[in-house]
Design goal:
Order of helices and strands: EHEHEEHEHEH
Bound molecules: flavin mononucleotide
Oligomer: single chain
CATH topology: Rossmann fold
Radius of gyration: 16 Å
Number of strands: 6
Number of helices: 5
CATH class: Alpha Beta
Length: 188
């Protein structure tokens, strides 16, 4: 099984990068092939809304690093999307990535993946400075449902709170939890 990770933070060594990579580590230990992209290391432009992707045989006409992600996504059974909370929501980087998924949707934006694309599993992981993991829960629930509408099978939403006090990678309670979220993506 191929699993792709997208780190929607510009900080390549940040909390979100560590969280996504730790989830992927769990999946890899169970035999998955994994690949990840960090927004800080790629060029991904915002969707232009030109709808060229909806014309017969054409994908997204923006020739940036999203093209490689589209190719990997087509083969992937699961996606791990990590975002820091910025002003109570996903980061602009996460929104830019999500909007670009428009090119994968059916021509009439039902909204569904194009016919033939298997339903993909998804793990969402949010990191936030504030220590209260319940603070943005309604937003996380909303986001989970938004991805379900896009036909992702969201299997887990991990919230790592309190990064202002301690970096995620320094927390002894997180590694096993995140590894498990990754291994649970891989069928027995
Ligand atoms: C622009 C910006 C907005 C932020 N907004 C919030 C917020 O609304 N609530 C919160 O708890 N933390 C907020 N934070 C803190 C980040 O969510 C937190 O530091 C996160 O773990 C950063 O992830 P990273 O290390 O992967 O970049 C914000 C940080 C930045 C830079």
């Amino acid at each position: 099984m191929n699993i792709i990770g997208f780190i929607a933070s510009s900080r390549k060594e940040g909390n979100t990068a560590w969280a996504v990579n730790t989830i992927l580590e769990g999946a890899k230990a169970r035999g998955a092939e994994t690949q990840s992209w960090c927004y800080g290391g790629v060029d991904i432009k915002p969707c232009r809304g030109c709808s060229a992707c909806k014309k017969e045989g054409k994908g997204c006409v923006i020739h940036d690093d999203m093209q490689g992600i589209y190719a990997a996504l087509a083969d992937a059974g699961a996606v791990v999307l990590g975002s820091p909370v910025y002003m109570g929501q996903m980061s602009a980087q996460a929104k830019t990535f999500t909007d670009r998924l428009y090119a994968c949707m059916s021509p009439r934006f039902s909204p569904h993946f194009k016919e033939g694309a298997a339903k993909k599993k998804m793990v969402l992981v949010f990191t936030q400075g504030n220590p209260d993991p319940a603070l943005f829960q309604p937003y996380f629930e909303y986001t989970k449902n938004m991805f379900r509408t896009l036909e992702f099978d969201v299997t887990a939403v991990q919230v790592i709170a309190g990064t202002r006090d301690k970096r995620a990678c320094e927390r002894s309670d997180l590694r096993a939890l995140l590894n498990d979220a990754g291994s649970a993506l891989v069928p027995e």
